[in-house]
Write a sequence for this structure.
């Protein structure tokens, strides 16, 4: 039994979203992507995208739909960490092999996930560094990047030193 850890990452090039890639893809799965079917977004996902802005509740709801879709096909999606900007989860590699993850991701979560990650790419880039800096300085770790920066400023911690810009 093989378990695959997945973090969904969005790659941007010249300001355009190039693609959503599963951090757990293997060579065979990548080769099969060109021939795998495309699935339409569910009504719930389309509704979340209707205003062009994805909020945290819509992001979490989309992930929950993805998780439920996977469960309906017999695959548990275990959440490793949902405290940051991006939900980090894992599931059995067989879900990739049989196409379940592609179907569930495309129908329930892909558009929402990509929109959320593009809108929060700054948080993704330095979130772990800010979290570590807050902890090293004995501070609580707030939820948003803005709150993290403000907490550091209020504590008199040099923001640049947190990012290795000393």
């Amino acid at each position: 039994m093989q378990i695959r850890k997945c973090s969904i990452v969005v790659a941007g090039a010249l300001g355009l979203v190039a693609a959503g890639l599963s951090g757990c893809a293997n060579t065979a799965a990548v080769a099969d992507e060109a021939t795998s079917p495309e699935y339409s977004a569910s009504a719930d996902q389309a509704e979340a995208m209707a205003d062009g802005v994805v909020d945290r509740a819509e992001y979490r709801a989309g992930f929950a739909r993805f998780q439920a879709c996977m469960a309906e096909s017999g695959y548990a999606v275990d959440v490793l960490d949902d405290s940051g900007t991006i939900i980090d989860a894992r599931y059995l590699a067989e879900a990739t092999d049989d196409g379940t993850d592609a179907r569930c991701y495309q129908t329930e979560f892909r558009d929402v996930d990509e929109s959320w990650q593009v809108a929060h790419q700054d948080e993704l880039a330095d979130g772990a560094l800010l979290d570590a800096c807050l902890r090293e300085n004995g501070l609580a770790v707030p939820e948003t990047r803005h709150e993290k920066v403000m907490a550091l400023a209020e504590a008199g911690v040099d923001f640049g030193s947190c990012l290795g810009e000393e």
